Amino acid sequence: MKSLVKIKGDASFRKFFRKKKNNITSIIVFAKKEKFKNLLIYDAINKILIKNKILAPKLYEENYSKNYIEIEDFGKETLFKRLNKNKNNKFSYFKKVINLLNKIQLIKTKKIKNFKDKNYKIPKYDKKILINEANLFCDWYAKKHLNKLTKDKFSKDYIKIVKNLANNLKLKNNFFVHRDFHISNLMLVNNRIGVIDGQDALIGNRAYDLASLIDDARLKTSKLLKKKIFKFYIKKQKKLNFQKFKNDFEILSILRNLKIIGIFTRLAMRDKKKNYLKLIPYTWDLINLRINENKIFIDLKNLLIKNFKGKIK
Fold first, then answer.
1. Alpha carbon 54 to chain centroid distance?
2. Helix axes 242-269, 148-167, angle to 10 degrees
3. How confident is the model at residue 2 (pLDDT cuts 50, 70, 90)?
4. Quick one: pLDDT band at residue 1, thresholds 50, 70, 90?
5. Which superfamily, per CATH, for 77-307?
6. Which of 60, 71, 86 is CA-nearest to residue 7?
7. Domain segments of the chain: what residues?
């Protein structure tokens, strides 16, 4: 006997089903839209992670022509769920996550054969991608909240500022970057932490995944805990230029969270996933947290204050 039960999806175009056969479970990932990324690249990144002894879902079967793959089931316990239950012990979990991130950042594999026996090479996270992502804030959030004339003027100034911030990044793009490294994408599997949702991985700035983890729009954490996690990461590094890293961490955190406000607005407007709107106020809080830490953000701060009253304090 086998049965399929639909399970909660994510922000992508994928659908997920838990398959049960003779008390053994697996996950069916179905994607008709963007299936190259959501099926083929997703599995290629999982293969790279597994090759480097990182726990990621193994591929059991592929049926690309019918738009699905069958992969290992990591269960139901995300780190997000665990931390919501254990509010007093968060730092001990985050230390384990930082140790995992350090392992991920040692990955040198950039190319692997996908299940179609073609080479997949992880692209570079160049400035063009970073700027285009940050522009999602204009395309969706600004477009929704500003009239056309104001929005056009805002977008012109905003892009100029974002390009300047991207040009002020100091570190090289030479690290494996998961790009969605937060606790909803980390699973607790028999005392280990498994990584899911790696289809957007690129070779980029080592500060990016730490910014995703610490300044995560989905989980409210105190300033003290954020500082402790940041310091724990720094303490574990050798030959790290602290000032350059802190500069990049702050820039990437702000650009990422501006992008996320755009994505959450798009999910609500285009995909009718309105539950993401409730995460936007805390995302603004995260931008507020970083925007006063570096004088490089003064132009961005003034622009946001002028156009989005009350969002920046």
1. 17
2. 150
3. low
4. very low
5. Aminoglycoside phosphotransferase (APH), C-terminal lobe (3.90.1200.10)
6. 71
7. 77-307
